[in-house]
UniProtKB/TrEMBL annotation:
Cofactor(s) needed by this chain: Zn(2+)
Gene Ontology BP annotations: proteolysis
Keyword Hydrolase: yes
One GO location term (cellular component): cytoplasm
Annotated source species: Chaetoceros tenuissimus
Swiss-Prot/TrEMBL keywords: Aminopeptidase, Hydrolase, Metal-binding, Metalloprotease, Protease, Signal, Zinc
Superkingdom as given in the UniProt entry: Eukaryota
EC number: 3.4.11.21
Chemical reaction(s) catalysed: Release of an N-terminal aspartate or glutamate from a peptide, with a preference for aspartate
Protein name as it appears in the record: aspartyl aminopeptidase
Stated family: Belongs to the peptidase M18 family.
């Protein structure tokens, strides 16, 4: 990465042509988030409580396991019940019911059954992903730092992170640990060591040649090994219970300091730890930023911002008086793992999870005499997938990277992403349906994004789900900066913009879809 000094201009706030700062309301003084002592425009102030709820969600979700757990907590608080995966849905599902299930504890599907639902009716689906690029602890974690006296960990790059942003950050460890319980059963425990136990230090500028400084190239194998500690290590190491090593020698390859931290965090013996799936995360909490708190800075906005809004919208929609009573369809949120590495896995959007869920829910309500193939294909043609993933807001220091007429702005609402080469699933029809829904609900008009012709285009779970199920789909997202950096930025009011649009989707989709003379 080459930096020119004109690319280092910080931005203080977001200029806005609308009467954004006109109405003077005394500053919102949330001491916890250190808001600035300025007069806060109502246009931002009213969005802050929701943004703070989202920020708590991000802070509690340093990995897909925690993202699913945090979401499940929200669902359970709203009386959603967990489905028994191996039992028939026929005996478990009822009209008006609210359900969820998880897979690998890293993928989540939650849905409500409209009280007017019949087999063959549609599925209103909001899809997102729980994973973000990060550094995962390798199967053999121990890395002896040679004569440097440093204790390090071996880590593996997951997804396409902006890895240089991981340098000089305070890093913790989270994920799940497998433990042998007292009865001999293997249990899983989520763990989150929310302290700066790890760090990947930069090399001092004085030790770099001019050429090295200019290139700022990093070797992903050699330069990302985080530091876990120093000399005290020996003292601590002596404490591991050497007598009780696991037979297959697994323990020998693990950094003892890491095992000890896990054991004290979980309240188990190190000898009871059988394995883990761990990753590093930045312990800095999400914060409100900008002169008027019009930005939210956080890790993993891609794609936890979408996950939060999706779960929150299903919770709010389903607890709205009368909403499910008149609903003819299924309202469903599906949050998949493994999007950042292509979705091709047992828990990714490329897995049978979506198709199977539709099939099983449909079957549960099908009369015995029904022609199953017919009901199923009717259901597919009445369904719609709103695939949500963050979008690229125009960057003031790199404005030429955007196509001028398709340059989304932060705090200006959700973005429809389109690509004629099907990197995004949006079509003329699906884009129009969402614009109609927004219009009907009196919401802010959606923004449009198309990548420049001379630039490659990302992709999402949208085309994957629509190609495997045959459902209509659209790709949308909130505009943000610094995608895949360890810390990203989005607009504070866009949480409201997204949430309102998702609720409107659940509320108005059937009516809008039926207003098309032809669904084909
Ligand atoms: C389970 O989730 C973890 C964390 O995201 C992931 O690393 C692992 O690959 C997942 N397992 C499966 C079977 O998908
Ligand atoms: Zn994403």
């Amino acid at each position: 990465m080459k930096l020119r000094s004109n690319l280092l201009l910080p931005f203080l706030t977001l200029a806005c042509t609308k009467p954004f700062y006109s109405s003077g309301v005394r500053a919102f003084s949330a001491a916890a988030r250190n808001l600035p002592p300025l007069t806060q425009p109502t246009q931002i102030k009213e969005h802050i409580p929701l943004a703070q709820k989202a920020m708590d969600y991000f802070d509690s979700s340093p990995d897909p396991f925690h993202a699913v757990q945090t979401s499940v907590d929200m669902l359970e608080a709203a009386s959603f019940t967990e489905l028994e995966h191996e039992a028939s849905y026929k005996s478990q599902l009822k009209p008006g019911g609210k359900y969820y299930f998880t897979k690998n504890k890293s993928t989540l599907v939650a849905f409500t059954v409209g009280e007017q639902f019949e087999a063959g009716n549609g599925f209103k689906i909001i899809g997102g992903h729980t994973d973000s690029p990060n550094l995962k602890v390798k199967p053999r974690s121990k890395l002896t730092g040679g004569s440097t006296g440093c204790v390090q960990l071996r880590v593996e790059c997951y997804g396409g992170g902006l890895w240089h942003t991981w340098f000089d950050r305070d890093l913790g460890v989270s994920g799940r640990v497998f433990v042998r319980g007292e009865d001999g059963k293997i249990e899983q425990k989520l763990v989150k060591i929310d302290r700066a136990i790890l760090r990947i230090p930069n090399l001092a500028i004085h030790l770099q040649t001019a050429k090295e400084r200019e290139a700022f190239k990093l070797n992903k194998e050699d330069h990302l090994a985080p530091l876990l500690g120093m000399a005290v290590k020996d003292a601590l190491e002596g404490k591991t219970d050497k007598e009780e090593k696991i037979e297959d020698g697994w323990t020998e390859y693990q950094e003892p300091l890491l095992l000890q931290m896990l054991s004290s965090e979980l309240g188990v013996e190190t000898s009871e730890i059988l394995d883990f799936e761990l990753n590093l995360f930045d312990v800095q909490k999400a914060s409100l930023g900008g002169a008027y708190s019009e930005f939210v800075h956080s890790a993993r906005l891609d794609n936890l911002a979408s996950c939060f809004m999706a779960v929150q919208s299903l919770v709010e929609y389903s607890s709205t008086e009368g909403a499910l009573a008149s609903d003819k369809d299924i309202s469903l949120v599906a949050l998949f793992d493994h999007e950042e590495i292509g979705s091709d896995s047992a828990t990714g959007a490329g897995s049978p999870i979506m198709g199977e869920a539709v099939e099983r829910i449909c079957n549960a309500f099908e009369p015995e005499t029904a022609d199953h193939v017919c009901t199923h294909s009717k259901s597919i043609s009445q369904s719609f997938v709103l695939s949500v993933d963050q979008a690229h807001a125009i960057h003031p220091n790199y404005a030429s990277k955007h196509e001028k007429a398709h340059s989304p702005k932060m705090n200006d609402g959700m973005v429809i992403k389109r690509n004629q080469n099907q990197r995004y699933a949006t079509t003329g029809v699906t884009g129009l349906i969402i614009r109609e829904i927004a219009r009907k609900a009196g919401l802010k008009p959606v923004q449009e994004f198309v990548v420049r012709n001379d630039c490659g285009c990302g992709s999402t779970i949208g085309p994957i789900i629509s190609s495997s199920t045959g459902m209509r789909a659209i790709d949308m997202g909130c505009p943000q900066l610094s995608m895949h950096s360890i810390r990203e930025t989005m607009g504070t009011s866009d949480f409201t913009n997204g949430l309102e649009l998702f609720k409107a989707f659940f509320e108005h989709f059937r009516e809008v879809d039926d207003s098309f003379a032809d669904r084909n």
